[in-house]
Amino acid sequence: MANALTAVRLALALPVAVALARPERLAPGVVALFVGLAIVTDFLDGPVARRQGTASAFGMLFDHSTDCLFVTSGLTGVAIAGSITPLLPALIPFAFGQYVLDSYVWHRQRQLRASFLGRWNGILYFVPIVLVAASRLPFPAGFTSLLRLATGALAYLLVASTVMSMLDRATTPFRSLGQMNS
To answer: What pTM did the predictor assign?
Structure first.
């Protein structure tokens, strides 16, 4: 059941990305519904797996890979529409790849090894998608402008925090070696 919830999010990635890039392709309410459904499935898949006793390293990798694909494609759509810098969706796959390599290769773990900043980035990558979807709903123009401004500013903050997270993860092994040699 948990992997089925994750698969729903995976299936929503392309339609959401296309709709965010080309707003005329899908009604704003449908886009908002799809984004909301993606978030709900992301929130529920882990607890469902733990409650059913089906939590696994594969399920965690599937969940996080799907999150990466969903937010990268969604934010690419947002960037194509001109709402955010294209740097953000370009950085996310590199940060995710580093996360996977760091977990499985450097630390030789059997599951992904999260970092504090990386975890928060992963959560906050959904926010610009939500803000753009909300900005296309029939709200007053002033509120819509505020949502668009917040989207652009948040994207730049996420670029900075993603770079910081990648630098932190890249230097952690060297800090660990220095502590072992002390």
So the answer is: 0.89
Question: In sequence order, which residues have a C-beta less than 8 Å from that of residue 35 and are 6 or more positions away?
Answer: 16, 74, 126, 129, 130, 133
For residue 141, how many other CB atoms are within 10 A of its CB? Answer: 7
Q: Output the six-digit token pair for 66.
A: 């799907």
Tokens read off for 115: 């970092």
CA angle, 135 then 94 then 5, to 5°:
60
Q: Do residues 158 and 128 touch, judged by C-beta distance below 8 A?
A: yes
Render pLDDT for 18-47 as a digit per residue (tens, 0 to 9). 999 999 999 999 999 999 999 999 999 999
Measure the CA angle with vertex 158, ends 157 and 164; round to 5°: 95
Q: Which residue has the higher pLDDT, 141 or 69?
A: 69
**Is-contact 78 135, C-beta < 8 A?**
no
In order of start, what are the domains of the chain with their CATH numbers? 2-173 (1.20.120)
Residue 25: which residues within 8 A CB-CB, separation 6 or more? 18, 19
Find, among 77, 85, 83, the residue nearest to 18 by Cα: 77
| Cβ proximity of 31 and 136 under 8 Å | yes
Residue of 94, 68, 77, 72 lying closest to 166 (CA atoms): 94
> What whole-number distance in Å separates Cα of residue 156 and Cα of residue 176?
30
Question: In this structure, what DSSP letter does residue 17 have?
Answer: H
Q: What is the pLDDT, as a whole number, of residue 100?
A: 79
